[in-house]
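pipeline: protein-struct stage 2 | run 1193 | dTDP-4-amino-4,6-dideoxygalactose transaminase
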Amino acid sequence: MLTPEADGMPPRDPSGRIPVARPSLPRAETLVPYLRRIDETRIYSNHGPLVDLFEARIAERLGLGKHAVLSCNSGTMALVAAIRAERNLSGHRGRLCLLPAYTFVATAGAAQSCGYDCHLLDIAPDTWAVEPAALRHHPRLSEVGLVLPVAPYGRMIDLQGWQEFHDKTGIPVVIDAAACLDRLMHPGTVLPRSIPLAVSLHATKSFGCGEGGLVLSRDTGLLREAYKVLNNGFLGSREAQTAGLNGKMSEYAAAVALAELDGFARKSAQWTKVAVAYADAGRETEVTLWTAPQISGCYALVEAANAGHAAAMKARLVAAGIDFRNWYGGGLSAHPAYARLSHDPLPVSADVAARIIGLPCFTDLAKADIGRIVACLSPPLAAQMQASRS
């Protein structure tokens, strides 16, 4: 298969290149006890005992009730299940979905796969997210059947504000919280009363199982509906009660997820160590770095002052053999698949997309390599580094 180089990928040089991501999932020996359980039960899918155990343990870790967590086979499928469950239960038939222009493409893809027409919104410059209070006066609100707020890079958004928006407008709301699981594990986080959150368990996230997702909600009726959506419409019988699909998590994915949960205290400490190292290195510069706990631990971002400064940073990173990513690209409207979507004016989205750069971030990223990365972000430090090599 052809694998063209992505934006920010310098020529492959195994001797010195720093990748932007290097996921680490549970080692084989930690999976063996769970794999033996699968051998014993001979249950491989269809909400087996390991899936049930994983859902129960995650619910306990998040301080939720036993039936507040539903697993599935990807973060995108979690979005689809939550969207379709909301639509089925609300009876709301508006075809328009409002969502931020600055997000990963899966947000729009999930909405469109559920039959919605997407309309892109600009974001607030301080949160990089859509604000619920401002949206209540949107001129197309009467057409709206769904709002899809996004928690960018795992930054916590106004969850209770979105609950109030839903309560006052009656419009279904589903929150794309793809990278938020590590943030949601922090004490004091309270889920909205009825709005669902969709979480990704992709290998690149702070907590991952390779591919997987979660729907989180305190509304057990909504989760029952999402269960049906992910189970070909079945619940307690062989008669399909709704139009569904197969989005279930397998027992093998649950085995990886359980082993990940077993070792997550250690992994979380590793993410924290990387974030602290970035913060320490950043104190020697005037650049703005974003790391945990402000965002999810799997990200390290630099916010350049303007697009020109961002371009110069990228050039220095490429020259130094350091990968980077514009994780959301130029925003949805910059992707050919979504370029024709209707949208509000998007000046903030365009500005933020041009200035935010994803830096290397993985659990065993060395402190010396972090120093090398951060040095590339500051012209004086980059010059010093170049001089030291001369």
